[in-house]
Amino acid sequence: MLHRTDAHITTWVIAIILFIVALLLHKAGREKAAKIVHMIVRLFYILVIVTGALLFFSNQSINPGLYGVKLLVGLLVVVLMEMILVRTVNKKGTGFLWLLFIILFLAALYIGLKLPLGPWHPFD
């Protein structure tokens, strides 16, 4: 299936860039552009989840516990990105969500680097 992380890394990097662009467009008052970018970000959420699931199912036998934790943390990061965008559009508080997002994003990044399939191994 999927034995390299290139597609997965590319999709989540693009998703984060688009997430930031959508937030900046909303803050600038460009609602129509923000809504379009938000829809594109949602497409990239799906791509991130699909590529992550393919990596999980084809490589979980290497270290099932760590891959399972990475899958869960990665899903939570995607959910938090969407919650932050929606709550920002609805003018509701996002402070706690940002804190959770940063913590879980760093955890997902650390676990992803720690996994044997990761592109770098700075923690070995």
TrEMBL record:
Source superkingdom: Bacteria
Predominant location: membrane
Membrane topology designation: Multi-pass membrane protein
Signal peptide extent: none
Pfam families: DUF1516
Keyword annotations: Cell membrane, Membrane, Transmembrane, Transmembrane helix
Annotated InterPro entries: UPF0344
An annotated GO cellular component: plasma membrane
Regions crossing the membrane: 6-25, 37-57, 69-89, 96-113
Coiled coil (UniProt feature): none
Subcellular location per the Swiss-Prot or TrEMBL entry: Cell membrane
Family from the record: Belongs to the UPF0344 family.
Protein's name according to its UniProt entry: UPF0344 protein CWO92_01345
Natural source organism: Heyndrickxia camelliae
Lineage of origin: Bacteria, Bacillati, Bacillota, Bacilli, Bacillales
